[in-house]
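Suppose you are handed only two things: the residues of a chain and a line of SMILES describing adenosine-5'-triphosphate. What would the bound structure be? This form records exactly that question and the answer produced for it, so the two can be stored side by side and reused later without any lookup.

QUESTION INPUTS
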Amino acid sequence: MMVTRPKTLYKTPPTSRGNSPGRTPPAPAKNKAPSPSRRIGRSPARSPLKTPQDDKKAKSPQTIVKPLTRTPSKRSLGSRGSSPAKTPQSRGSEYGSIERLDETSTNRRILSTFKEGEDNINVVVRVRPLNNREARSGDETVIQFPGNGQILCESGSGQKPRQFSYNVVFEPAATQEDVLQFSGVKRLIEMSLEGFRCTAFCYGQTGSGKTHTLTGPPGLFGKKMAPYSDQHGLVFRSFLYLFQLIKERPEKHFVLKASYLEIYNEKVIDLLNPGSLRKPLAVRWSKKARGFFVENLFTVDCEELDDLLAVLEEGMRNRSMGSHHMNENSSRSHTILSVHITSEQPAENGVFISRSGKINFVDLAGSEMTKKTRSEGKTLEEANNINKSLMVLGYCIASLSDRKRKTNHIPYRDSKLTKLLADSLAGNGVTLMIACISPARFNLAETVNTLRYAARAKKIRTKPIVLMDPREALILSLKREVAVLQSENEHLRSALNGYPSSVADQHSVERPVIRTPPKIDPEKLAELEGPQLIELVRLYISENEALRTENEELFTSRDALLRDQEVVSRENERLLKKLEDVNSDESRACVRSPLINAQSAISSDLSRYTGDLESTANPNIWTNPMDEPQKDSSHLPESIQKELDKRMIGENILGKVGNHRRHNSWDGRPGSNNSARTKSSGSEGGKVTGRQSRKEIETKSSKPVDDGRPRFSIGNKEIFGSSISIDQDDDDLFDRN
Ligand SMILES: Nc1ncnc2c1ncn2[C@@H]1O[C@H](COP(=O)(O)OP(=O)(O)OP(=O)(O)O)[C@@H](O)[C@H]1O
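ANSWER OUTPUT
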């Protein structure tokens, strides 16, 4: 087995161990039966999960400004279903490739469903401290940190410093944990679990701290590696975070696979399979995935954190390192460590949706000024290849960041690196660039170059999407639409039911019968034959169409009803206005008619009404209507009587809105003959008809009496000494008969 790990390091109880790369040779593992029910990350909490960093509260770096503010992506529903068949240690798969996606492609497996919208590449800058050599030579810092994600870089004698701005800037004092917490890499990990393809890559001149940032200082992965070291880089910490997230989602089923490659002198080498004498692997174009992939790249099943860490160690041990004047431990290759994450989650109505996310960690080799690094021989050849591929990357970044040039040719094919990074740079992924720079004057030219690169990269936009099986995605989207339409229709129907049947009938139309498709067993979805699937989709489409039609009709009905209601309300207001006018005429004649108490239940303007009343009489003086000369209803002007009759216009709606019964304060008053009168008029239980009650109102004067009834008041004012209580049984309040 090529991937090994020191047993002293990440100990896991044997019972919980899975197909760890450190133990199982690839060939037998290949034949191992798939274990769909097995889970990843369910082993007892292991030591690396409890590093001192976890206990230590993440320091708020003085150095960091404007952390990324993106909201974490939405969590999907938890799930557990049939797991995808396992292909341990698979060869010849397209894992390890950077798939290029095409929404228009009719290829299976490729379909976008959830878009995050366009997203700029996030760019953060990490400035390392001056190193010993620089400090010894008395070199000085040419970088300033004005804050707010900005960097000032000296530009030469007497000239104004250049200013650059980024998402986040890490000053030399920032710790490895700070980078995890504030670079935005956590968001990438969360998104990769949701099915997005994410990439974090480090860019910068040689010796600027790329490897330090990603994996830690040299020697960390040697024989005496400290598992709890503060120096662990972003990859180690990201793995911990990844498994922490997996642990928090026990209801979901995740399958993780990892691959690790390097591009050395334009050759792709499998870092997990060095036994093949570093035989270069081919980078090919996949028609199906519409992207480049590495043929025969090893992928390792990672059921536990230990497995991922073992992959990291193995790759670190096998990558090409060299030494030159500027860095004793210089990476001589670009490396790509990829973790493929497949998850299954339930959608509505028992359908399961699987998603395939990925996170790539890319450690680019540093650009070199060979004069400065004093490279020669093998190191010089490496340097030339490194510089060449970085130059192509630079062209691609420049083309992509220039909106005018973006439509033109992007030279991805000019290097293996750009072929494999194509999707991260301009595809459907989410990308984080960590630009590493030295603060020393000695490196000023390279630093300015890196900062320019980084500023350009910030302008590049990608279109993050989640890939799903088109069949699953289609069914899911149809189901969602059906659910939305159903609830909307339900709502409209209940709104319609609130109106009298005559009104509802007036707007109702014949609807087609809606056939609900049969329930699908998620387990069997993949086994369905073509015609069965077509039939299923056809059923969903027809159900969808029928619901749409019904939805439109209901909306039309609702609009018509709203218009009717509007007309009624306007009419009501007009009448109230008339009544107010009449009332003010009568007040002038010192005659107050109790009729002005009448208030339509559908009028929403009671306060205006009372306000007007106040304006017509001194609110501080209560006038007992009993003391005032009474006006018999027969003396009411005919116009008022007509208006009152007209007020019946809202009766249907009134009947539904609240069944308000207006009681006068004398109702039920001891000694009042109201009940007797009611009885004598043939009404039951004190129930009066609209006409009757109006007549009584017309002929009786009101008198404020504390009769124990709840008083209906507006703005702390009772309406003319009347109390209004709600009576369930008052449909005929405005009955004309
Ligand atoms: N932020 C930092 N704090 C402390 N030491 C650092 C920091 N960044 C880098 N160093 C140290 O500087 C040295 C060079 O760093 P590193 O090897 O990571 O650079 P690099 O950019 O990966 O270089 P190359 O491109 O040559 O591989 C290492 O000894 C590393 O530990």
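WHAT STANDS OUT: The domain at 14-57+119-225+249-266+300-468 is CATH 3.40.850.10 (Kinesin). The longest helix spans residues 530-588.
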